Amino acid sequence: MAFGQWIHHKDGVMVPTYGPCRLVHDDSMSILRTTKLSTAVPAVETEIVRVLVADSGPIQSQLLTRALKERRDLEVSAVALDGSALQDYMQSNSVDVVLIAGNHLKDFGLLRWLRVSHPGVATVLLTENDDRDLVVSALRAGAKGIFLFANTPFSMLCKCIQCVSRGEIWINSQQMNYMLEALSEVPTLRVVNSNGRLLLTPREEQVVALVADGLTNRGVAAELGLSEHTIKKYLLRIFDKVGISSRVELVLYAVSHGEHRPAEWMPSTA
Asked: How far apart are CA 12 and CA 38, in angstroms?
C-alpha cells in the first residue's frame, strides 16, 4: 500500500500525510534567544511502549511477538485471544497497546470490553482485508487502528504501534471513507409482522430507528429536518399500525421485531 494512502490523526484532526506519523504539531513555537547555545546534542531517551499480542494462533502469535521484540522501543508479551486471558494479564500488568488478530475474532465484544475497562489502552485490529463492515464495526467498538497485516510492511506496524500509543488513530483513506459513509447514513429499522410483511413506510422506519436509538421528538425532528409536530403525528400513526401506545413499547417492539438496514436520505418534504 502506498504511503500516500495513509491517514494520520492528531488532536482530533484528520491530516493527510505522505506516511503515518510524519506530521506532528505540538502547538509550540520556536523562539530565538540571544544567549549562546550549546553545540552538544542531548541524548534522546527512548520511550518504551508496552505491547500485548492477542491471537488464537500460537505459531503466528509467537512469530509476531518475536519480530516485535527485536525493537528496542517495544516491550512485548502475548496471550491467547480470550477475554479471561486478557483480563488476567491486564489486571497485573501495564499495557499501552493491544494487538488483536481480527481474522480470529468471533465478535467485537472484546473490543468494547477493552474500551470500557481499559480506556487508556489503544487497541489495533490486525486483519487481512479491508471489509467495510469489519472496519466500521471495529472502530465503533473502540479500535484505535486497523492494520492490513497481509499487504503492509512490518515496519509500518511498528509505526502504527507508536502512533496509537500517543493517542492517535491509524486508518488508511479507504477505511476513513467507510467511516464517513457510515456517519452520513440515516438509520432505519425495518419493522415486520410475524409473516414478514412490512408494517411501516420508509419514513416511519427512520422515526422508529431514531426513537429506538434514544432520541427525543426534538432530536428526531432535527435529524430528519421535520417539525416536532410532524414527528408526533408519525408516532401516533406508528402506534396505531403496530398496536402499541407508548415510546417504551415501541422501543421494545423494535428490538424484538426490527431488522437493521442502511437507508437512503429522504427529503423533509416526504
From this structure: 36
Secondary structure (DSSP) of 171-219 = EEHHHHHHHHHHHHPPPEEEEB-TT--B-S-HHHHHHHHHHHTT--HHH
Side chain identity at residue 154, one-letter code = F
Residue 252 confidence (pLDDT): 82
**In CATH, which of 3.30.450.40, 3.40.50.12780, 1.10.10.10, 3.40.190.10 is domain 185-261?**
1.10.10.10
CB 43 within 8 A of CB 132: no
* 138 contacts 126 by C-beta, under 8 angstroms: no
Say which CATH class 3-20+47-182 falls into. Answer: alpha beta
The pTM assigned to this predicted structure is: 0.60
Regions of the chain with pLDDT less than 70: 1-46, 184-194, 196, 256-270
- Residue 100 β-bridge partners: 54, 125
In the chain, the N- to C-terminal Cα span, in Å, equals: 44
Domain residue spans of the chain: 3-20+47-182, 185-261
Nearest to 65 by CA among 154, 193, 137, 197: 154
Return the amino acid letter for 141: A
Q: How many Cα atoms are found within 13 Å in the side-chain-facing hemisphere of 256?
A: 9
Amino acid at 103: N
The answer to whether the beta carbons of residues 60 and 47 sit under 8 Å apart is: no
